[in-house]
Amino acid sequence: MKLEFKGLHPYFFAEASPIALSTVHEPETLAAIRAAMDAHAVIVFHGQAFTDAEQLAFARRLDGALHAKTGARVVAKNRLGEDEALTDISNVGEDGALLATDDRQRLYRLGNRLWHTDASFEDPPGRYSMLHARVVPPSEVGGDTEFADMRAAYDALGPETKAKLEGLRVRHSIAYSRRTLGFDFSAEEEKLLPGAEHPLVRRLPGGRRSLYLASHAAEVIGWNLPEGRLLLRELIEHATQPRFVHRHTWRAGDLVIWDNRATMHRATPFDDAHVRRELRRVTTLDIAA
Ligand code: OGA
Ligand code: MN
C-alpha cells in the first residue's frame, strides 16, 4: 500500500498513513519519507512499536549519523544506558519514580518549555528529531507539544526585514537559555557546552528559507547584546504567532519526526508531579548526506 501524508495545518505538519517503521528498509520508502519531510517539516506516524534499538536503527536508516552531544548528558547519567544518542524525554528518574519538583534534572528539563530547535548550541546541530511516545498522560491532563513553521514565518516577513537579516550569524548557547530560567550550570558543566554559531536564515533543500531561532540564540554576531537580543525576541514572537503553530496531542506509539532546520517546538505544562510521561528522542546530525 502506498504511503500517504495528510496535512493537518495550512502550512506544515502531516499525518502518515499506517506503516510499521521498524520494518521499513527499502530505499524508495525512506526516500519518500525524506521528500515528505521537506514538504511538511513535521510528520506524525501513529502506532509505532519501537524498542530502543529499533528506534535508533530507524533513525540511522532515515538520516545517517546520530547526535549524541546533548545538554542532558552533562547534568546527569542517562538512565536509558550508555548510548547518549537516545535521549530520555520523561519526568522519571533513575529509580523509575516521578522526579521530585525540586530535582535538578527536572529543573533542567523544564527548559524544553521554551521555544527551541534541538542542539542548535552544537556544531553540527540536530537535523531530524524523532520523538517516540511510550507512556503519555490522558489528553485532558496536557503534555502536548507545540510546533512552529519557521519557513512560513520567514516567508511572512517584509522585504526590508528579509534584507536586514541576510548574512547575519547567531551564537547559540544552552548555558544562556537555561540561565534565562534561573537554571545554572557549574563552571565544569559549562566547559562541556561552549555553544556554536549558525546563520540566522537557513536555505533548505528545495530552496525555501527559514528563520533559524531558538531559546538558545544568545547573540547576533557583530551587534551589541541588547540590540541583538531584541531582534531575536522580536523574530521569535513573530514566528510563534498562532497562525504558524500546530499543537500535537500525543497518543502512545506516536513517532513524531521534525526538521530542526525548518521548525521550532516546545513542551507544554501538565501535572508532572503526579502523572507519568515518557518519550524517547533520537536526533540526527545536520551534516551533508
Ligand atoms: C524534545 C522536546 C518537547 C516535549 O524532545 O526535544 O523538546 O513536549 N520535547 O517533550
Ligand atoms: Mn527539543
Mean pLDDT: 97
The fraction of residues in strands falls at 15-25%
Bound molecules: N-oxalylglycine, manganese (II) ion
Helix content: 25-40%
Number of strands: 15
Q: What structural class is derived from the secondary structure elements?
A: alpha+beta
The level-1 CATH class: Alpha Beta
Give the terminus-to-terminus CA distance: 28 Å
Corresponding CATH architecture: 4-Layer Sandwich
Mass-distribution shape: globular
What are the segments in which pLDDT stays under 50 over at least 5 consecutive residues?
none
Numbering strands along the chain, what is their spatial order in the largest sheet?
A: 1-2-3-13-5-15-4
Total of domains? 1
The CATH homologous superfamily is named: Clavaminate synthase-like
CATH topology: Double-stranded beta-helix
